[in-house]
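Milestone M4 deliverable, item 7.
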Amino acid sequence: MDSKRTLSRILEAPQAMEGEGVPIRRAFPSHEFGLLDPFLLFDHFGGVTLKPGEAKGFPDHPHRGFETVTYMLAGEFEHRDSFGHHGILKAGDVQWMTAGSGLVHSETPAKSMLENGGLLEGFQIWVNLPARDKMKAPHYQELSGANIPTARSEDGLAAVKVIAGSALGVKGAVETHIPIEYLHVRLQPGAVFTQALPANLNAMVYVFQGSVSVAGRNVPQYHVGEIATNGNSVTFEAAEPTDFLLLAAQPIKEPVARYGPFVMNTAAELQQAFEDYREGKMGSITVPR
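Output delivered:
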């Protein structure tokens, strides 16, 4: 029997600064919302139009034990890491980086952004890894916007960019370590969109344009709604043009030891990560001249 999930809470994502001075809205972690296992962090960055020379980024920093997922809505970021990986993320592109055993990487404005300015906007999400996968070799899945499938409702009022998981019969392009749904949903006025969502998945919605109603409760722009585990599907209704991200995943249910750029299972593993980084075992970024 189909039963609809409701919202357990709605919170505004507060504004902050990260990196060299990139404006963000952080849905979590915060004093009100710690994490949503296995999601560790949710940042909506940018959303601002920059003048030439104003673009800022995230200089060299290490990671171990989890995944970073970057989804660009507008602008361009250049990525480099200590294993020699280099690429440019443009509007619509996704980078799903498994940090695993550890690396050093940077995310900085591409040359075009620095020279010309323009709108910069996107999301970065941290996804925890099970203990069995934390020390795997670093790995990338990089997808251009053109290669990320979009599902559409029969009435044409709902369009879903399926980054991971599935929606409306369309399967996403990213392979994940545990079951994960990562959907960018765009609704037109009058749209009703239902997503199958088993109760064993933790889930949330973040609205970045317009507003959406779930079981009679409204989630406004720049707010996150945590979806209760009291059903096996969730229905979204829009009275105005609306864009939101829907995230859902099977919780890992393991101890979390985190500090700064590292997420492990124990304090000893966390200490080892810092020691390995200080000793240069995660490498360093070399930029060709």
